[in-house]
Design goal:
Glycoside_hydrolase_63, globular, Mannosylglycerate hydrolase MGH1-like glycoside hydrolase domain-containing protein, binds (2R)-2-(alpha-D-glucopyranosyloxy)-3-hydroxypropanoic acid, Glc3Man9GlcNAc2 oligosaccharide glucosidase activity, 429 residues, 16 helices, 6-hairpin_glycosidase_sf, 5% strand, 4-stranded antiparallel β-sheet, Glycosyltransferase, hydrolase, mainly alpha
């Protein structure tokens, strides 16, 4: 199935709904693909990172010129990377979006290398990727440090990847939706409206992205030039936990390439310090969960999303925080090992919970894979095993659905979805 989604240089998340290359999808896909073809897994990441911008950002979409315009909205004519992104260093030979997605790439690169170190060394895979990965992390830790505390901020819900999560309802309410007549939603040609974000959500996504584009994709962080952080500026637990995880992976990459621990121990130290910052800025002891911080109000957003469980992947989390997170995962809000089969994307008891609608309740395979990885890391083996079995069942029964009902495992959204197939493969190895 992954071969059907392969374009020759990368893998599309879904042939009809998402016919281009997506950033964090490609990282998860490479993690699975390495078991079938380490070479293709390397190419997947190389293709994505070849579209990196001069300022270090890795765009969330790399467009395939062979796909008809209008097959996906917003396409290259909306983002206008070559012109609007010129000052930020958008590449010339390829069209991309101008926003980013969670940095899973160094983790993926390390795992892909480990799948076939001989091939990786022969192709200088890590040596070629290393400066790009380092520049990517530098961009996030400086230009995106809008809060000034060291964490990266996301400027758009599409950047965090859980597009219509109720966590964004508050910050998004400040955004005046774009005129619905000004754009056409190609996603509704392939997805049921009840499974997708609403038209009002889309109006707000379009407004925010157009504003960022019209400001030349300039950032508000330490080496950015834009002073106003914009209507939407949020520190997100999953995004930053993945940045920290990828910092650890980049430390391993550097140690492998340099043959010394010297530079990599500095990076590991930074990853540990960022873990402390994550706890200081985003941990909510009352809810026993990590929350998102709205940088406009400088307050935590009182919504329980799966994003708040993802820091379980961090090795240096204080043990009391880890234990509390595991309790929260098992409790009434996420139901792991009890009411639900897979971890939902949003609080089962929350007022906005909807088991069908995209990131407002359904369970996704990438987030479940990360939670399972975190549980395993912290020794919660029976729970991790149970989650793994549930994921394998749901993936098989749903023909690799994009997301599933967290209670029943019934498939929703696209089928034959890239990261669902790839991460299933990873669970089987
Ligand atoms: C916008 C590709 C992407 C995923 C995101 C998911 C969805 C896009 C969309 O699809 O977002 O980037 O058009 O809805 O929310 O996580 O990377 O699979």
């Amino acid at each position: 199935m992954l071969w059907a989604n392969w374009t020759g240089t990368s893998t599309v998340p879904s042939l009809a709904l998402y016919p281009h290359q997506w950033s964090w999808d490609s990282a998860f896909i490479a993690i699975g693909l390495r078991h079938l073809s380490p070479l293709r897994a390397q190419l997947e990441l190389e293709t994505l990172l070849a579209a990196q911008w001069g300022d270090g950002r890795v765009p969330h979409i790399v467009f395939n010129d062979a796909v008809p315009p209008g097959a996906y909205f917003p396409g290259p004519d909306f983002w206008r990377s070559a012109t609007a992104g010129r000052r930020a260093g958008a590449p010339g030979g390829v069209q991309t979006s101008g926003i980013v997605q969670p940095p899973v790439h160094a983790l993926a690169a390390w795992l892909v290398h480990r799948a076939d170190p001989g091939l990786s060394r022969a192709r200088s895979f890590l040596a070629r990727l290393r400066p790009r990965l380092a520049a990517w992390h530098r961009y996030l830790m400086t230009a995106r440090d809008a809060g000034g505390a060291g964490l990266a901020a996301v400027l758009h819900p599409w950047e965090q990847g859980m597009d219509n999560s109720p966590c964004w309802d508050g910050p998004l309410s400040r955004v005046e939706p774009a005129d619905p007549g000004a754009f056409r939603r190609a996603d509704l040609d392939h997805g049921a409206p009840g499974d997708r974000p609403t038209d009002t959500d889309y109006g707000r996504y379009v407004r925010l992205a157009a504003q960022y584009r019209d400001q030349g994709y300039e950032d508000a962080g330490r080496d950015g030039t834009r002073r106003d952080p914009g209507a939407f500026s949020v520190e997100d637990p999953a995004f930053n936990a993945l940045l920290i995880t990828s910092e650890y992976a980049l430390a391993l990459i550097e140690a492998e390439l340099d043959g010394t621990e010297c530079r990599s121990s500095e990076r590991r130290e930074r990853a540990r310090a960022l873990t402390d910052t994550l706890v200081a800025r985003l941990w909510d002891p009352a809810r026993a969960l990590f929350l998102c911080r709205d940088l406009r109000s400088d307050r935590l957003i009182a919504e329980r999303g799966v994003t708040g469980l993802i820091p379980l992947v961090l090795p240096a989390l204080p043990p009391a925080v880890t234990a509390a997170l595991v309790r929260t995962a098992r409790g009434p809000h996420f139901g792991l090992g009890g009411a639900t089969r897979l971890v939902p994307s949003y609080d089962l008891t929350g007022p906005a919970f909807d088991p069908r609608r995209y990131w407002r309740g359904p369970a996704w395979f990438n987030t479940n894979w990360l939670v399972a990885k975190g549980l395993r890391l912290h020794g919660e083996l029976p729970l991790a095993d149970r989650l793994r079995a549930a994921m394998l069942d749901a993936a098989d029964a749903s023909d690799f659905a994009e997301y599933v009902d967290p209670y029943t495992g019934a498939g929703r959204g696209a089928r034959r979805f890239g990261w669902t197939a790839a991460l299933t493969l990873d669970l089987l190895r």
